[in-house]
């Protein structure tokens, strides 16, 4: 048996390449390295952990490993001789010169997807078994205790998208913060942290979770600039006795796009990693409802996905929740550039509102609009879902990326007066800021102020693939929008009450 006859001599560990190209790495090792015993670790396509004799090999080592596994109460099963895809490179039997061989198949759940799962306890057992068979010392794996909160859910930090660009640094920080509609605490705190100190002192959260920063003098706002904090995602709908959870979409998205992908469940004790399986089921590894309850997860808990801003070629960037973290970053950038005199009490009253629950029905903006006297103008800073992609019909919502910011003249929630559109367009042209006109579906937060008497002038940037994990924007459009927002803000603070709409 293995313990009675430990092997002597050298032990070779080979990390082979090109497994999915006819096992070329393994074939090369087998042809170059002679060994008394050969053990091959390979991923399996289901949850079974098996030990099998590979093709052309004796079953002796397999039998010995299974005996030892039984003695140690390791949960391995005997498997059938597996078929290895060796293609044109393995015309001879691969293990003919390695007659004392065994193949250990590691049970991988959801193999070949972004959410492969493997049992750490079984990995420990496989490692110990190989150590005993090869006569080497095994260092135990460090497996976190069940229920332990994970480290930061975010991927390893990416290099800053553009060194020296404060606006892009803001966008990156906001994009990578979760904030599904109705679960917006984390993104609201991130925005508060990003405010300049003077604005943080003036920031107030209302009963709906909106964050409001008031500039200038007291009284009703002459103008309101808004951007919404929330993003589309999911929330837990119910939890079963065995710890299984189902989720429902929050906001307009295609659930199928998220099947088989990692997710992050927001919980009081910290975010929990999980996966999205078929039929919008969430698996965090729990085996009982008690485990889920202990983690502080229940109906209404927000479910997001790991997010990261990525640079594409030229001036393009990709990520998730650009809608509307880019808008929030533009407002933050504008606040950061204000001087003490510009934001002082002698300026006209202007409000910056970071709204909640826009994706589920403009609820945050509705509360602000109903709780205060209507401003004369409202500027909703939000994405313009463009048809500028290869497969879409360009007869509606066409605003090419790189063409400038978009004056959203008409959408499902209303129409901006022509003179208001032309005023902003003329202002952009005078300052040599590229501008486009847009007609699209969907609504915007500014529409909730119209019934109170305000003129709504929504301003946008073109966005491809909205509400997916790979939204795409052009930084030139974002910078153009940031410039026109700063210019409009200066006009409003200087007392533009006599402006045409």
Please provide a brief summary of the model.
The chain has 501 residues and is α/β, with parallel strands linked by helices. It has helices at residues 24-32, 60-71, 120-134, 166-175, 185-194, 197-202, 289-294, 322-336, 363-371, 418-430, 447-450, 475-493, and strands at 38-43, 50-52, 77-78, 101-106, 204-205, 211-215, 223-228, 233-239, 245-250, 261-265, 272-277, 281-283, 302-304, 310-311, 316-319, 350-355, 377-385, 405-411, 414-415, 435-439, 455-456, 459-463, 471-474. The chain folds into 3 domains: 24-134, Aminopeptidase; 166-231 and 308-498, Aminopeptidase, CATH 3.40.630; 233-304, Elongation Factor Tu (Ef-tu), domain 3.
Low-confidence stretches: 151-164
For CATH, the homologous superfamily of the largest domain is named as Zn peptidases
Helical percent range?
25-40%
| Number of DSSP strand runs | 23
The Cα radius of gyration reads 29 Å
CATH architecture of the largest domain: 3-Layer(aba) Sandwich
Mean pLDDT: 86
- Figure out the total of helices: 12
How many domain modules?
A: 3
* CATH class annotation of the largest domain: Alpha Beta
Here the CATH topology of the largest domain equals Aminopeptidase
Strand content: 15-25%
Q: Give the helix/strand class.
A: alpha/beta
């Amino acid at each position: 048996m293995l313990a009675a006859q430990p092997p002597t001599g050298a032990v070779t560990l080979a990390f082979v390449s090109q497994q999915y190209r006819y096992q070329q790495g393994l074939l090369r090792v087998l042809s170059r390295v002679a060994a008394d015993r050969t053990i091959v670790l390979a991923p399996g396509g289901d949850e079974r952990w098996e030990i099998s004799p590979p093709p052309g090999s004796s079953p002796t080592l397999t039998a010995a490993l299974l005996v030892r596994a039984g003695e140690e109460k390791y949960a391995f099963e005997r498997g059938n001789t597996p078929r290895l895809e060796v293609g044109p490179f393995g015309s001879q039997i691969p293990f003919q010169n390695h007659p004392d061989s065994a193949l250990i198949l590691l049970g991988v759940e959801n193999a070949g997807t972004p959410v492969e799962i493997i049992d750490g306890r079984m990995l420990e057992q496989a490692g110990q078994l190989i150590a005993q068979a090869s006569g080497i010392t095994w260092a135990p794996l460090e497996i976190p205790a069940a229920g332990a909160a994970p480290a930061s859910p975010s991927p390893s930090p990416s290099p800053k998208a553009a060194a020296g660009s404060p606006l892009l640094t803001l966008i990156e920080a906001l994009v990578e913060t979760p904030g599904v509609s109705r679960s917006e605490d984390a993104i609201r705190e991130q925005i508060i942290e990003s405010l300049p100190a003077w604005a943080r002192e003036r920031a107030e959260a209302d009963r709906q979770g909106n964050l409001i920063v008031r500039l200038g003098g007291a009284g009703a706002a002459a103008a309101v600039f808004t951007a919404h904090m929330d993003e589309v995602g999911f929330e837990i709908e119910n939890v079963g006795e065995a710890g299984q959870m189902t989720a429902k979409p929050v906001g307009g998205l295609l659930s199928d796009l998220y099947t088989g992908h990692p997710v992050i469940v927001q919980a009081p004790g910290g975010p929990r990693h999980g996966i999205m399986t078929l039929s919008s089921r969430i698996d965090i590894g729990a085996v009982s409802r008690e485990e889920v309850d202990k983690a502080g997860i229940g109906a209404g808990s927000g479910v997001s996905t790991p997010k990261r801003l990525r640079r594409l070629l030229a001036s393009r960037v990709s990520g998730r929740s650009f809608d509307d973290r880019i808008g929030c970053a533009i407002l933050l950038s504008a606040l950061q550039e204000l001087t003490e005199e510009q934001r002082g009490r002698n300026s006209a009253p202007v409000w910056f509102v970071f709204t909640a629950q826009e994706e589920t029905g403009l609820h945050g903006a509705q509360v602000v609009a109903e709780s205060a006297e209507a401003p004369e103008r409202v500027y909703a800073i939000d994405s313009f879902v463009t048809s500028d992609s290869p497969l879409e019909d360009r007869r509606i919502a066409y605003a090419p990326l790189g063409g400038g910011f978009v004056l959203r003249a008409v959408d499902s929630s209303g129409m901006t007066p022509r003179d208001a559109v032309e005023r902003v367009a003329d202002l952009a042209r005078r300052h040599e800021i590229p501008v486009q006109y847009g007609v699209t579906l969907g609504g915007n937060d500014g529409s909730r102020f119209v019934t109170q008497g305000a003129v709504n002038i929504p301003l946008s940037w073109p966005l491809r693939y909205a509400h997916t994990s790979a939204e795409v924007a052009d930084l030139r459009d974002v910078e153009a929008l940031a410039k026109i927002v700063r210019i409009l803000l200066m006009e409003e603070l200087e007392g533009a009450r006599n402006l045409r709409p």
